[in-house]
Automatic annotation (TrEMBL):
Protein family: Belongs to the LysR transcriptional regulatory family.
Taxonomic placement: Bacteria, Pseudomonadati, Pseudomonadota, Alphaproteobacteria, Hyphomicrobiales
Keyword Transcription: yes
Stretch forming the signal peptide: none
Alphabetized InterPro entries for the sequence: LysR-type_TF_proteobact-type (IPR058163), LysR_HTH_N (IPR000847), LysR_subst-bd (IPR005119), WH-like_DNA-bd_sf (IPR036388), WH_DNA-bd_sf (IPR036390)
Name of the protein described by the UniProt record: Transcriptional regulator GcvA
Gene: gcvA
Residues covered by the HTH lysR-type domain: 6-63
Highest taxon above the source species: Bacteria
SUPFAM superfamilies with a match to the protein in the record: Periplasmic binding protein-like II, Winged helix' DNA-binding domain
Keyword rRNA processing: no
Keyword line: DNA-binding, Transcription, Transcription regulation
Organism: Labrys neptuniae
Pfam family, one: HTH_1
Length: 297
């Protein structure tokens, strides 16, 4: 049996006006105009065919029909608010769901994440690694770090860091009969691939290197595995500024050549516009940018 319902969009205006016994105060609470409140209540009264308020030049009061109806509407709105809070509990809980790529998680985020948890011990972080775009509403993700052009319709996208690409390898490959000194020396070494858009063919062409097969070598689906293979001396991988910075600083990897290729894509922090109102999301967003900031002198 079909329900006989009033115009639902008018109910918040009616409930607020009934609670305050003032159209002006209801308008202020709901951040709309006095006229919008008046029109909503007129629509409701017309649909019901009864007067809900008695109006004078200075005051309004509920009619004998309006008073019990206002209480019923208030109860329904309270119940709906509770159900909505329960349905979106993952957004307001202490668990922060972060989505990013395997490479960013393994090479940058995870080694630093203890600092976020140390400063925000009440926030539990769950990291999901995937190459696909996040459907924030459907998969429960609160905030993401994405690599791309920065255009994500309907979402807030903030530039985090750009990137350059350059060969990196173990210090061991700088020694021996075929030590890496010039890009042309790559013909004596294994190239390591990771499926990144800027590949060896692009880098070798930009460096003017010929005689090196850009498709030979080892291939990994995971950037972390590709970097680890290079650190173990298995070959040379294309390093990405942010994702090999720690390995370069620690001496596990070195840059045998100075030539770098600037990527057209960058890292962005991405989240639904309203998500920043949640403390856990803002805390993580602010921490990301603080970690990116250069150390003070």
């Amino acid at each position: 049996m079909a329900r006989k319902l009033p115009p639902l969009h008018a109910l918040p205006s009616f409930e607020a006006a009934a609670r305050h016994l003032s159209f002006s105060r209801a308008a202020q609470e709901l951040n709309v105009t006095h006229g919008a409140i008046s029109r909503a209540i007129k629509t409701l009264e017309d649909r019901l065919g009864v007067l809900l308020f008695e109006r004078t030049s200075r005051t309004v009061r509920l009619t004998t029909v309006g008073a019990p109806y206002a209480q019923a509407v208030r109860d329904v709105l309270d119940q709906l608010g509770g159900a909505t809070a329960a349905a979106t509990a993952h957004q307001s809980s202490s668990t922060l769901n972060v989505s990013t790529s395997d490479g960013f998680a393994g090479r940058w985020l995870v080694p630093r994440l203890y600092r976020f948890h140390r400063a925000n011990g009440d926030i539990d972080v769950r990291v999901s690694t995937t190459g696909r775009l996040t459907n924030f509403l459907g998969d429960g993700i609160d905030i993401a770090v994405r690599y791309g052009g920065g255009t994500y319709p309907g979402l807030t996208s903030e530039f985090l860091m750009g990137e350059e690409v350059f060969p990196v390898c173990s210090p061991k490959l700088l020694e021996g009969a075929h030590a890496l000194r010039r890009p042309e020396d790559l013909r004596h070494h294994t190239l390591i691939h990771d499926g990144f858009p800027i590949n060896w063919a692009s880098w070798l062409a930009s460096a003017g290197v010929e005689g090196v097969d850009p498709h030979s070598g080892l291939t990994f689906d995971s950037y972390s595995f590709a970097v680890e293979s290079a650190a173990q001396g298995e070959g040379v991988v294309l390093g990405r500024t942010m994702l090999v910075a720690a390995d370069l600083a620690a001496g596990r990897l070195v840059r045998p050549f100075g030539h770098a290729l600037k990527s057209l894509s960058s890292f962005y922090v991405v989240y639904p516009p309203d998500a920043i109102r949640q403390r856990k999301v803002k805390a993580f967003r602010d921490w990301l940018f603080a970690e990116m900031a250069p150390p003070s002198a």
